[in-house]
Amino acid sequence: MIFNSIDFLLFFPTIYAIYLFSNRKAQNIFLLVASYFFYGYWDYRYLSLLFISTVVDYIASLGIERNSENVFKKKLYLTLSILCNLGILGFFKYYNFFISSAADALSVLGLHTNPVLLKFALPLGISFYTFQTMSYSIDVYRGQLKPTKNFLDFALFVSFFPQLVAGPIERATRLLPQVLEDRKITMAMLKQGGFLVLLGFFKKIYVADNLSYIIDPVFVAESPSGFQILTATYAFMFQIYCDFSGYSDIARGISKFMGFELMLNFRQPILSVNIIEVWKSWHISLTSWLRDYLYIPLGGNKVSEFRQHINNIIIFFASGLWHGAAWTYIFWGVYNGILTSLHKIIHPYIPVLPGDNIKVVYVFKTTVKIVFTASLFGFSGMFFRCQNLEQIFHFLSNIVFAFGSFDGDMMVKFVRLVLVLLLIEIHQYANKDEFSIFKLHTSLRVAIYFVVFYSIIILGNFNKNEFIYFVF
Fold first, then answer.
1. Is-contact 127 104, C-beta < 8 A?
2. Contact criterion met (CB below 8 Å) for 236 and 460
3. Cβ-proximal residues to 251 (8 Å cutoff; 6+ apart), any chain
4. In terms of Cα–Cα distance, which of 404, 399, 367 is closest to 382?
5. pLDDT per position as a tens digit, 11-62
6. Of 27, 361, 385, 425, which cross-links 355 as Cys (Cβ 3.0–4.6 Å)?
7. Catalytic pick from 309, 323, 394, 427?
8. What is the Cα–Cα distance from 199 to 331, expressed in whole angstroms?
9. Residue ranges of the domains in the chain?
């Protein structure tokens, strides 16, 4: 079941009405049942994986607490959690990739094999909920969290349907207390939730899904021009941003309706002034997860500068692999890892130009930085979107040797689709407030709502339903 479907439009009002007239204990049980129904609606067979991951981490966390003085047993229970979650994730998501890659490597050496590949659909949200449950056991092991004794409450933390299949990847220290305590729904939460849901559908149905008409023909064409490739690549940056952040907005919005506060997953990353800022603002729940559970254990910033850069490349390699079992995603991750390391190396030597106290100069300098950063980051979208390495190299060749002529119609369509979004994001960025729209005059706010509603209902693309990040 997906947010932008008739099924969900029937599902949520029904469960919401029951939710409002239940006490907290009944709410939690009902939400757990609803969450399992929500996930099983896609394919009930994969509910077993969600349940196994939940049971293992519930047992592991209690085992860690019971053996707080026994380091060996604590590590044993933590290992159980990590092996189970990474085992489930590795088998269902990466088995075919690693087997095929090994077979290709052997064929280069003249050893030809017939690898046995598995044929099944990737379970929805498996990369999200395995990371979420695994971080719970790690936090209990580190002493940052006491394990919950109530299995049903813990199961709801794992399976909470708004963020189950595409995040944000919540931490138990943030979401679990909200599950355990009485929740209060305020008027501010309802207003903010309504805005987030509206903005999320606008990003998804109007911007992201309409951009597919520009992007898809280029990436299936045999030999598009370099101009078309670059335009489609940067359009894809907006598409995947709007598709994914749109999902996060809707998830956060409907959670607010029920009294839950999910973490902010995107903070206007396309307006970042450098690549480091991009990655502090893009898919925050994953980048912070990799920082806390991989980068810091590898030494963080306490090791030599050279080791810091190696560790940085490692976490971006992991980020690429997390996104998909393909070399294209790994290229995307390593590319961004190299960019962030280069920025750290070069930044201290870049001279600071005067004029920041003059508004026009400051705006100009900031705009140049934003465009330059978006160009570097957006270019990586080619690696993310291409089907294989051969297509990447072919596209790079066409950019250099077959650039072609300017396609005005393609560019106008691109700008038209992202213009309103950019204006909203610029206002949020300038005010450092995602709900800055509430500060506007009522008439202007109503005009914005009208444009957004009109764009969704009249101009929206309702033929392309699935969210891109469902496949991760």
1. no
2. no
3. 3, 162, 163, 166, 167, 168, 200, 262
4. 399
5. 999 999 999 999 988 999 999 999 999 999 988 899 999 999 999 999 999 9
6. 361
7. 323
8. 31
9. 6-183, 188-471
Question: Count of H helices and E strands in the chain?
Answer: 21, 0
Instruction: Please name the residue that has the structure tokens 């806390």.
Output: 292
Q: What is the pLDDT of residue 313?
A: 96
Query: What does pLDDT average to over the chain?
Result: 93
Whether 323 is catalytic is yes
Between 327-346 and 389-401, two packed helices, what is the crossing angle to 10 degrees?
A: 60
DSSP string, 219-248: HHSSS--HHHHHHHHHHHHHHHHHHHHHHH
Question: Position 365: which residue type?
Answer: K
3-state helix, strand, coil in the chain (%, to 5): 75, 0, 25
Angle at 165 (CA atoms; ends 164, 167), nearest 5 degrees: 70
Q: DSSP code of 68?
A: T
What mean pLDDT do residues 157-182 have?
94
Contact between residue 12 and residue 38 where contact means Cβ atoms under 8 Å apart: no
Q: Could you give the CA distance from residue 137 to residue 143 in angstroms, rounded to a whole number? A: 10
User: Which amino acid is present at 262?
Assistant: L
Q: Is the pLDDT of residue 301 over 70?
A: yes
